[in-house]
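Q: I have 115 residues here and want to know how they pack in 3D. Can you give me a structure?
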Amino acid sequence: KELMEAMEAMTLIGASINVLLDESDSSSSMNNDDNNCDNGNTQRNKHSMTIYDLACGHGLGGMLLAYRFPEVKVVCIDMERRPCWNTYIEAFEKFGMKSPGNDAVMANLEFQVGD
């Protein structure tokens, strides 16, 4: 049940992130049209976005977001790293697709211990 709830939540959160990324693309395009130059705002906006998955538990939610949005940094934070974290990472690395320019499938994901 917990995994299914995480999948549903990440679907809804992912849709919201798509809206934010589309807005950053639109505002950058408008700036580029006004100035007739490519100032790189789109890439800077996407690469400066960070998602924090607080009290991430097993971490699957943050991992799904990191995989879906390879241009966005995802930081999972919990009081301890659960043993399943490494299993999930291994599965993504074995079966997932690397995004262009990355050496690892989950290059944009990190875990931090915190409360």
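Q: Anything worth noting?
A: The longest strand covers residues 73-78. Residues 2-35 form the longest helix (34 residues).
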